[in-house]
Amino acid sequence: MSVRHATMGAVSASSPWAAPRTQPDRCPGLLRPHQAADGALVRLRIPGGVISAAALTEVAAVATEFGDGQVRLTSRGNLQLRSVPVDAEGDVPAEMVDRIAAAGLLPSARHELVRNIVCSPLTGRVGGRADLRPLLAELDARLCASSELAALPGRFLFALDDGRGDVLPLAHDLGVLAVDAEYVRLSAAGAVGAPIPLHRAAGELLVLARRFLARRGAAWHVRELDGAPLIPDAGDPMLPLGGPLDFGRLTQVDGQGLLSLGVPLATLTADQVDAVATAATRSGSGMLVVTPWRGLLLPDLREDAAQPAAAGLILDPESPWRNISACAGAPGCVKAAAATRPVAALLAGTGCSASTPGVHVVACARRCGAPSGEHIQVLAGPSGFTVSGPSGRPDINCDAAHLAQVVARARNGS
Ligand code: SF4
User: Fold this and answer.
1) pLDDT of amino acid 296
2) Looking at ligand 1, which residue's alpha carbon is closest to its atom 3?
3) Where is this region: Disordered (predicted)?
4) Considering the domain 5-24+115-240 in this protein, what is its CATH number?
């Protein structure tokens, strides 16, 4: 664990105020797919990124049968499927909904869009001040049991940080930061309250969520509320700089092994899903965790598992795939001016994406999927690229032949 500290100012800095909302959010789900250029996009919420190998296997089978065969990981530790057909009403096939529900991934149809919870992925297994897995399960169950809270916006995010400072810096609405194994501080859009017992945390978070609903008007986020803050700020928690996980092998507190796997461009093929699911079932507890950095944890291993690396998932912390990401781009996105994923693969192939700051490739100014921290942006257009960042550097236009060189120079400040 790093001993560097960030102030909560850094937390709120990642949460820019939004302009007044004029329309409801349109976050996609299984029951509310988003129509993209390549068919419908479906998002499956998996709170805390926790999913069984059996459920992930079924998602991959559904993706193969109804979509493009790939399972994408999102920055909230959720899953997305693309190229799904819809009927005249815009609904995905009923059989697909039934299979996802049977896999346990749709416990409440009314709450599908509001089960947005990120949690420290290693909690209870490696490091951290507390095991927040029971809180994660309780919060999700009580959220789904409240008909009132089904009205939360689809972008509203709970963040449960076990004290290592990894998920609280994500732009969240409500959250907790563990102080020790028994106490947490509540967080509401950057304000952090006084310590309360951990066993009260789920109830208090839902009280705050109801207060938000009572005051929200058209707001999507706590930070957009007018008037008094939801909780009094009890002072800077001196948040440790947790940050994204490195890839590699870790040892859990119970002595079992854990693989932190990189997923190139956050996209799992059917073979890769089969590899991790087989390893989780044969050598682990049958559970997997999707991280908010679009990686995958294979925990509770009684023995090493070779299948994921053999299938192309990444264990090398120096991999050139470590610091590169891309939006969907063409042909999947109707707004895309160019393809993005081949550009990211090209940069990974040159090795220039291995160091920091990371590189994010987009194909329009919406910058979908951009990392929250400092990074270099490559904007792909029909006739070349614009490289921006890190902050303070002028934009540079270039062609494909010079892209890797320009990115390297931007990173080195030369
Ligand atoms: S950044 Fe633009 S091109 Fe890329 S996915 Fe978003 S809208 Fe589409």
Assistant:
1) 97
2) 336
3) 1-28
4) 3.30.413.10
Nearest to 380 by CA among 399, 358, 394: 399
Give the pair of three-digit tokens for residue 115.
Answer: 């089960």
The phi-psi region of residue 244 (left if phi > 0; otherwise alpha if psi is between -120 and 50; otherwise beta) is: beta
Cβ of 336 below 6 Å from ligand 1: yes
Cis peptide before 390 (omega within 30 of 0): yes
State the pLDDT at residue 273.
98
Give the phi and the psi of residue 44 in degrees, each rounded to 5: -115, 120
Omega before residue 28 within 30° of 0, cis: no
With a 6 Å cutoff on the Cβ, whether 330 touches ligand 1 is no
| Pocket perturbation via mutation, ligand 1, pick of 80, 82, 362 by most ligand atoms within 8 A of CB | 362
| pLDDT on residue 13 | 32
User: What pLDDT, on the 0 to 100 scale, is given for residue 23?
Assistant: 72
DSSP per residue over 247-306, as a string?
A: SEEEE-TTS-EEEEEB-GGGEE-HHHHHHHHHHHHHHS-SEEEE-TTS-EEEEEESS---
Cβ–ligand 1 distance for 335 under 6 Å, the answer yes
Q: Which amino acid is at 82?
A: R
Rounded to the nearest angstrom, the distance between the alpha carbon of 44 and the centre of ligand 1 is: 20
* Range 324-412 classified under CATH 3.30.413.10: yes
Measured CA to CA in angstroms, residue 286 lies from 57, 122, 303 at distances of 11, 16, 13
C-beta contacts of 301-305 below 8 A and 24+ residues apart: 301/256, 301/257, 301/258, 301/259, 302/256, 302/257, 303/257, 304/249, 304/257, 305/259, 305/279
* Cα-based torsion angle of the residue sequence 101, 50, 116, 154 in order, rounded to the nearest 10 degrees: -40
CB 1 within 8 A of CB 240: yes
- Whether 222 and 188 have beta carbons less than 8 Å apart is answered as yes
Q: Tell me, what's the pLDDT at 354?
A: 59
Which residue in 132, 121, 135 sits closest to 170, CA to CA?
Answer: 121
Contacts of 226 (CB under 8 A, 6+ apart): 215
Mean pLDDT by groups of 10 residues along the chain of 414 residues: 35 42 82 92 98 98 97 95 95 97 97 97 97 98 97 96 94 96 94 96 98 94 92 87 86 98 96 98 98 96 94 92 90 90 91 76 91 88 91 86 90 74
